[in-house]
Design a protein that fits this description.
alpha+beta; single chain; 65 residues; 3 helices
C-alpha cells in the first residue's frame, strides 16, 4: 500500500532530493536543504512524499499554508 508521509528532517529531505531535482534541475542539494530548512522555520513550509509499496519515494509536494 502506498503511504504519504510528511518529511521533517534533513535525512528525509535528502532522500527525496532526486525527485525534487527533476523539477528544479538547477538546484544544488546543499541549497535545497538550506531552502527547505529556512522555509519550514520561517514560512510554515511543509514537504510530503508519496512512498510506493516497496518504500521508495515516488512523488514529492511542498507547500505553504
Amino acid at each position: 500500500m502506498a503511504v504519504i508521509k510528511e518529511l521533517e528532517n534533513e535525512r528525509e529531505w535528502r532522500g527525496v532530493f532526486p525527485i525534487m531535482h527533476q523539477l528544479r534541475t538547477t538546484l544544488e542539494e546543499s541549497a535545497y536543504l538550506s531552502l527547505v530548512a529556512y522555509a519550514r522555520e520561517n514560512e510554515g513550509y511543509r514537504l510530503f512524499a508519496l512512498y510506493d509499496e516497496d518504500g521508495a519515494a515516488a512523488s514529492v509536494v511542498g507547500f505553504m499554508p
